[in-house]
UniProtKB/TrEMBL annotation:
<feature type="domain" description="MARVEL">
    <location>
        <begin position="9"/>
        <end position="136"/>
    </location>
</feature>
<feature type="transmembrane region" description="Helical">
    <location>
        <begin position="12"/>
        <end position="32"/>
    </location>
</feature>
<keyword id="KW-1133">Transmembrane helix</keyword>
<feature type="transmembrane region" description="Helical">
    <location>
        <begin position="124"/>
        <end position="144"/>
    </location>
</feature>
<protein>
    <recommendedName>
        <fullName>MARVEL domain-containing protein</fullName>
    </recommendedName>
</protein>
<feature type="transmembrane region" description="Helical">
    <location>
        <begin position="77"/>
        <end position="104"/>
    </location>
</feature>
<dbReference type="InterPro" id="IPR008253">
    <property type="entry name" value="Marvel"/>
</dbReference>
<keyword id="KW-0812">Transmembrane</keyword>
<feature type="transmembrane region" description="Helical">
    <location>
        <begin position="44"/>
        <end position="65"/>
    </location>
</feature>
<dbReference type="GO" id="GO:0016020">
    <property type="term" value="C:membrane"/>
</dbReference>
<dbReference type="Pfam" id="PF01284">
    <property type="entry name" value="MARVEL"/>
</dbReference>
<keyword id="KW-0472">Membrane</keyword>
Length: 164
């Protein structure tokens, strides 16, 4: 297994876990404290919480140093898209609050706006990190496939004898 791929992959997986934990903590706090809100609003937060929990679980599993973790890039892309959807949900919810622009991620001032902005920022960052992790996995997958262990490709995908 290439050392460079592993050295890039480990910090990405740690960042995925950390960002998901931040979002899970903020959204979980609000889910526990909110009463009497509409079912659509609860569904938004539950979706975000499920994506955060799934990200923590998959990040922990794929943090174990096996090369098979690099071949999970399609799932990394799906999780990235799910995080982009969660970011969109948070942006839509913050649109109704008077917290300023969606891209103004300063966490000073109003505590409620600061927490929501933090959840928004970390959901976006998590989507980006999962996408970069998928790109690293894709790069590793095609690099390994193109640089086989001294074998040649025959017709119909069967491996031939080692090259001389």
């Amino acid at each position: 297994m290439p050392v460079v791929s592993r050295l890039v992959s480990i910090p990405l997986r740690i960042a995925e876990i950390a960002f998901a934990a931040v979002v899970a903590g903020i959204i979980g706090h609000y889910l526990a404290s909110l009463d009497g809100i509409s079912s659509w609003a609860q569904a938004r937060w539950i979706y975000t919480e499920v994506i955060a929990g799934l990200s923590i679980l998959l990040g922990l599993i794929w943090l174990i140093p096996f090369s098979s973790g690099f071949f999970s890039w399609p799932i990394d892309i799906l999780i990235s898209f799910a995080w982009f959807a969660a970011f969109g949900i948070l942006v839509d919810a913050l649109h109704h609050l008077s917290c300023g622009s969606i891209w103004a991620w300063h966490f000073r001032g109003d505590a409620v706006c600061g927490r929501w902005k933090a959840a928004e920022a970390f959901s976006f960052l998590s989507a980006i990190v999962w996408l970069v992790s998928a790109i690293v996995g894709l790069w590793f997958t095609y690099r390994v496939r193109d640089h086989g262990a001294g074998t040649t490709r025959r017709r119909w995908g069967r491996r031939g004898a080692p090259a001389v």
